[in-house]
Amino acid sequence: MNKGAAGTAGGIAAAVPAALFVAAAGTALHRQDVLLAGVGLPWGAMAALLLLGSVQLWLGAAFRSALPTAACGILCYALTGWWSTLETGKRLIIADTAGNLWIFGMAVVTVGMLAWCRRYRPPRD
Fold it and tell me: What's the rounded Cα separation, in Å, for the pair 26 and 54?
């Protein structure tokens, strides 16, 4: 196995627990809001997206590849998507402003981090 393949496998192995952590922590955090002039601002959803972007950036920089970033985003999105489709009473993410920001913001953050992490590719000889 060459060094690049070993790094990719290690990156994906690191992305799995990272995605599990971000999905759980972000889902717990996304419902937090603050009232400002009578309007609820979903700071928890924004903080959860910042957490996701930070972890994806770390994965991309640590493994010099966008593949762990993509794996983290896809797994995190799949988990939270599943949690948002559970039956009523068991659903962890509901379709309100905070829930929509968390679910759909993940796709935006992941695409942005993939574009950013392209810069970590090793130079071609």
Answer: 12
